[in-house]
Amino acid sequence: MSYNLLKGKKGIIFGALDEKSIAWRTALRCHEEGAQLVLSNAPVALRMGEINKLAEAVHAPVIGADVTNMEDLKKLFEESMKHFGGGIDFILHSIGMSLNVRKGKHYTELDYGFNQKTLDISAVSLHRVLRTAWDMDALNEYGSVVALTYIAAQRVFPDYNEMADAKTLLEGITRSFGYHYAIKKKVRINTVSQSPTRTTAGSGVKGFDGFISYAEKMSPLGNATGDQCADYCVTLFSDLTRMVTMQNLFHDGGFSFTGVTEAVINQMEK
Q1: Residues 27/32/36/37 CA torsion (nearest 10 deg)
Q2: Is residue 34 within 8 Å of residue 213, measured between CB atoms?
Q3: Which of 39, 98, 226, 233 is the most buried (most CB within 10 A)?
Q4: Structural domains present in the chain
């Protein structure tokens, strides 16, 4: 069901890889709610994914950009503003990549060169995106930026590895840049801490199947799906949340504030 929450708004969606991606699901919902979109991802991801299928569905151009490259980001914003005929109302940052996880490196044996790239792509990229928008005055007043994170930024999940550190940095950038952008132009910046979700990237984490089952038992409402996360992002892009900024917002069925559930106790006693 559409409520026209984003009618007339224009936004950039980073990170849609395939139909399992939260960014993909969010782009579809934003389109349904009346938004105009630009889709962006790294050149290598564009070759791997199916983003042209999404672009056709939401009537959006695809503009490749390496989020660690300021010139690429400047070009992305220039072309997006030209396409929209003006400023941008919202941005979704759904970007994460860990070379150490890909290479099977344990957290206690990180390759620090890989680690630097992980932090740059998964967290510092948000600062680069915001800095580019800031310098170009690309975001409209009361614009909204949402970055996707995970509760491993607050709690230890051993197999989440260095991505936990990346998410911690991501949330810190959200608060710090959120302060400055709110004062400058009332732009709000938040993170959404989503349930474990069966995305292509998420499924690559060691022990993911067992953990998603555990999270389901530990969440009073159950795990939030990618489509439900897309719904939540729409509300944060809308004018209904104009006073929400610098927050880490848990979207996890209650997992984040549950000590234990009867279902988990029963499982342990079997």
Answers
A1: 10
A2: no
A3: 233
A4: 10-269 (3.40.50.720)
